[in-house]
């Protein structure tokens, strides 16, 4: 019996373009003391070979035409790739298999450890579990005994998107060369240059930390309903969306307000015998609800979950985020809210109302992989027993 243990060194969450690193240990556990080998060869366990690679499986209920969609992903169509046909779906990203070892023999109690490093392609889609399309990433470790079927160990990982074009549009990368032009000081420690991964994280932090309040006057056909302030339009995973409502400018009484964090999933796939078909789904996550009759001011606090996927776009699907507002206003002109000087206030039994909806787009970006990993209940160690 052999045991293969895979340990993710930096956790199960990565940004696109980041390098995945894991250790793969092959162990031959000690046999029971009462077991006696019949020959010298019986005490050894052997494996013919083992390889590792990263794959992304796309699952959808429609057929993807690779030629017409012009997907810029590397498809694993060669015979050296590990087969995952039993899962269904289609391989849209597949790195080249890396051979870990050949003809490995281990005596009882002996173990061998190998390190697997592979870079996730920068143009690969992120991990996403939508209603119409799903992208799932796995590290596939395949091994085989002589004249035995191939054994697969699938280690799931999560990939977060990094939209370079969106970063450049909102803030861009800072090319500060002041330090390079300064005179060199031989007594100061030479600081290592920042890697592209560090620059990306710093840019995400700078863009999402900017305060840029935007004010919106919300009204209907009968007048002003409220004045809404959103303190910033750009957020990252795990943050709270904070806003404020000002009802002092309202000419139409607002009874209650609901705000939902929603994502809009839009696909452009090719159906059999139909051609290209566009479909969209709206998915609601966190929601803020408040009865605001008689209020002058109130606030909005809406958390962004860590398990959701930031905005991204591929030739197959695009994902956008928005705040969806629902205002319930009353058409009664004689309705008055509670007064501070009153000992009690009785609400009317019947109230003529009408509902108004409004959607506000927001920008949602990734955060540090370590922060996302803390909110996920995943195991960094996976095992496979070969008998």
TrEMBL record:
<protein>
    <submittedName>
        <fullName>RAB6A-GEF complex partner protein 2</fullName>
    </submittedName>
</protein>
<dbReference type="Pfam" id="PF08737">
    <property type="entry name" value="Rgp1"/>
</dbReference>
<dbReference type="InterPro" id="IPR014848">
    <property type="entry name" value="Rgp1"/>
</dbReference>
